């Protein structure tokens, strides 16, 4: 990320008083940003840490900690606030994290032996922390842990070059839109917001508005207060935002109710899951500058993106120049040229060329002009409208031991929460099932909890084509049979 720091230094010299970061009434200028990065860098350098976790709410401090670690070459591992305690502990053990940068209200989430006060944050030295794996960390600037489709997050190892390439490609793609102020809506621990909402604006010389997630409208990882969101946007008057499909639905509803709001927006990128073409068309009818993109953590986030100069409805945009895409004979999207270094703990550090192609698991096609289209997924992975990856088998297995439930199938692709179709056990009432689900939900992260359900009209069986001959769920048949009832649960 040498280009980014060169730009920051140059702007601090030539435009020292220009606004770089804003949070509430707090403004950080270019000169102050550079000074804060240098101050924290000196203190972190003295610790001699090589790997550091970052666990904070969206804030100016999050951005400064991220940039200071990058400047020092410390491998940084952002921990999403929505991770469950089990997932946080898995991440700490998996990566061998010795220390966590956090804020005082969040420090009780960790067992630490000592702490050090740093400017506006705390450094926690964890108890019984294992030694980091130096070989696995070699060349790794950032490890981004996915939410984990089976509950066990995997660490995607990215190099500084990975981050730099996608940052420059995105900046070039929106350079002529007149964007000078970005509002961070998504969690900064989300790679998409981290890159496109922090690195890209800083590279372009734009200012960044960063507020606590509750001020943006999030009540948890799957809850959203539309009125608070509108209040935040109207106050900050951003030119750009990044949205998940569920947030786009909220934006459209608000625009319909308040046609004179959201006029400052020049570019709203939508990613993290597929949006319906009709939704995007409605957004444009309302004069909302919404453009869909596509990417994945294993490719350092964005691979393709629509924008005002090349927008093709129904596609997820034109493939960016830093990445290559081909479609396999089976129709799978395969990305090359911008691949991760590997998953932490699984990297072949003796052969960095081993991971030059990423098999995405998504099905799609490319048109003659380089626009990418997504048609489905190879596996049963559910991607919620909040961008969380969830294996239905994982959640189903949590409930299948309950005596009150004979069968169940989990759904929720492109929806804000999971729903279930349940065959009750004999003599089991709806009240019994509800109690079982509530107990199970307590052990699941909130994005993987079942929040609505309906009962089957008849048990799944091979006879009604809802099971295979060997007893596996035919999810497409079950969904087709219960589609209206499932959709009614989200009405």
How many independent structural domains? 2
Residues in β-strands, percent: 25-35%
**Unreliably modeled segments:** none
- The CATH homologous superfamily of the largest domain is named ANL, N-terminal domain
* Number of helices, counting only DSSP H or I runs of 4 residues or more: 14
Question: Notable features of this structure?
Answer:
alpha/beta; Rossmann fold; GMP Synthetase, Chain A, domain 3; 14 helices; 28 strands; 32% helix
Summarize the structure.
The protein contains 14 helices and 28 strands.
What features would you describe in this structure?
- The chain folds into two domains: 2-377, ANL, N-terminal domain (Rossmann fold), CATH 3.40.50.12780; 391-489, GMP Synthetase, Chain A, domain 3 (2-Layer Sandwich).
- Helix content is 32%, strand content 26%.
- Strand 1 (19-23) and strand 2 (26-29) form a beta hairpin.
- The model has no long low-confidence stretch (mean pLDDT 91).
Layout of helices and strands:
Layout (H helix, E strand, L loop, with lengths): L1 H13 L4 E5 L2 E4 H18 L3 E5 L4 H13 L2 E4 L6 H11 L3 E4 L9 E7 L2 E6 L7 H4 L4 E4 L9 E4 L1 H14 L7 E4 L6 H14 L2 E4 L2 H4 L1 E3 L2 E2 L1 H11 L3 E4 L1 H13 L9 E4 L6 H9 L4 E7 L4 E5 L12 E2 L4 E4 L4 E5 L5 E2 L13 E10 L5 E6 L4 E2 L5 E2 L1 H8 L5 E7 L6 E7 L5 H12 L8 E6 L19 H15 L2
Parallel strand pairs: 1-11, 3-4, 3-5, 10-11, 14-15, 15-16, 27-28
Antiparallel strand pairs: 1-2, 5-7, 6-7, 8-9, 9-21, 12-13, 16-17, 17-18, 19-20, 20-22, 22-23, 24-25, 26-27
Helix pairs in contact: 1-2, 2-3, 6-7
């Amino acid at each position: 990320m040498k280009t980014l720091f060169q730009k920051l230094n140059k702007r601090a010299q030539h435009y020292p008083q220009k606004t770089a970061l804003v949070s509430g009434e707090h403004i950080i200028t270019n000169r102050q940003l550079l000074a804060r990065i240098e101050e924290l860098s000196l203190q972190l350098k003295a610790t001699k840490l090589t790997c550091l976790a970052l666990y904070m709410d969206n804030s100016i401090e999050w951005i400064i900690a991220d940039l200071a670690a990058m400047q020092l070459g410390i491998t940084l591992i952002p921990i999403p606030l929505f991770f469950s305690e089990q997932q946080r502990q898995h991440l700490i053990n998996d990566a061998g994290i010795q220390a966590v940068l956090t804020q005082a209200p969040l420090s009780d989430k960790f067992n630490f032996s000592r702490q050090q006060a740093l400017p506006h944050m705390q450094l926690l030295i964890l108890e019984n922390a294992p030694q980091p794996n130096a070989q696995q960390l070699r060349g790794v600037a950032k490890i981004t842990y996915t939410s984990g489709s089976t509950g066990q997050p995997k660490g995607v190892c990215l190099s500084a070059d990975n981050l730099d390439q996608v940052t420059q490609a995105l900046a070039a793609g929106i350079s002529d839109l007149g964007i000078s102020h970005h509002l961070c809506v998504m969690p900064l621990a989300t790679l998409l917001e981290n890159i496109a909402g922090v690195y890209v604006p800083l590279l372009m010389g734009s200012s960044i508005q960063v507020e606590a997630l509750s001020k943006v409208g999030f009540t948890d990882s799957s809850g959203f207060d539309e009125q608070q969101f509108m209040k935040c946007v109207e106050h900050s008057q951003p030119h750009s935002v990044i949205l998940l499909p569920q947030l786009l639905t909220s934006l459209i509803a608000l625009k319909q109710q308040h046609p004179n709001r959201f006029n400052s927006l020049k570019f709203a990128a939508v990613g993290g899951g597929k949006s319906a073409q009709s939704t995007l068309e409605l957004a444009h009818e309302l004069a909302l500058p919404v453009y869909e993109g596509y990417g994945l953590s294993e490719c350092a986030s964005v691979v393709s993106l629509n924008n005002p100069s090349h927008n093709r409805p129904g596609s997820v945009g034109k493939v960016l120049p830093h990445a290559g895409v081909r479609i396999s004979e089976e129709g799978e999207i395969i990305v090359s040229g911008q691949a991760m270094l590997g998953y932490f703990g699984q990297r072949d550090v003796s052969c960095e060329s081993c991971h030059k192609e990423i098999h995405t698991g998504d099905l799609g096609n490319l048109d003659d002009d380089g626009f990418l289209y997504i048609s489905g997924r190879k596996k049963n992975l559910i991607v919620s409208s909040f961008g969380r990856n969830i294996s239905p088998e994982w959640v189903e297995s949590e409930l299948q031991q309950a005596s009150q439930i004979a069968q169940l199938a989990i759904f929720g692709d492109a929806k804000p929460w999971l729903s279930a179709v349940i065959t009750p056990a004999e003599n089991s009432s709806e009240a019994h099932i509800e109690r079982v689900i509530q107990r199970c939900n307590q052990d699941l992260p909130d994005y993987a909890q079942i929040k609505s359900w309906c009962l089957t009209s008849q048990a799944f069986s091979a006879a009604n084509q809802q099971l295979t001959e060997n007893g596996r769920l035919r999810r497409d048949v079950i969904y087709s049979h219960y589609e209206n009832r499932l959709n009614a649960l989200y009405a």
